[in-house]
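Note to self: keep these together.
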Amino acid sequence: MLPGRFATCNEVFQKEDFSAVCHDVRAAGYTGLEIAPFTLANDPAELTQTERSELRKFMDNAGLEFVGLHWLLAAPAGLHATARDKSIRQRTWDYVGHFIDLCADLAHSDDGKNGVVVFGSPKQRSSRDGMTSQEATQAYIEGLASVAQHAEQRGVTVLVEPLSPDQTDVVTSLAEAVSIVEQIGSPAIQTMFDVHNAIKEEDNHCDLIRKYLPYIKHVHVNELDGREPGMGDYDFAALMQTLSDVGYTGWISLEAFDFSRDAREIITRSINHLKAA
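Structure:
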């Protein structure tokens, strides 16, 4: 039995017509769509309720479930979650609250589970302005805690995404992410596993999943170099077997970073490779 459910992130299509993207994603065999808000608008928080309903309708008509949001802080410009300037920091976490609302509005589920908000955004969470990584990490934790109640109320889960040390100096391992989740103590703040971002982890990836499964609410798949599965030699058979063995039932979502080829080729190769694995 295949673990989880397959989704893809929409940014591989860049800003193509959203309705057509939905139908192409479903035709490739996916049942879920994860969205990068910057592909929807220059200021995604300003999308009207009518526009949000229309986006949800496009997904429904294509037979897709909305999975959640990622690449949160790419737009609008000027956001930074750990800035020394408290006004910038507050504006940024206010926007995270807006993205929680956008996520809930796009999901609008009957069971009250309204998707995930993946907090990666390495540039917008790294230390700057002379702050140490410890100071920036503490600011990040405080920001997450400040939006936890709102996320709970909207049925959204905010995911602390561990990133590799070459991308950021704030939360660079799954162990550190889990520690933050435990420190905040809210069901709305959890973590996830991303193949590409775990490239510098000391532990075997399958061991990490077994160890931290209760906290892993989402999985991103890609090759270690960021291309889609099937373009490298990562052992997806072992990964998929582990997810199956531990009973993972969440989304397995493609996040590829090579946009030089046709998006349909990328998503088709990925799902075929994962199913074969």
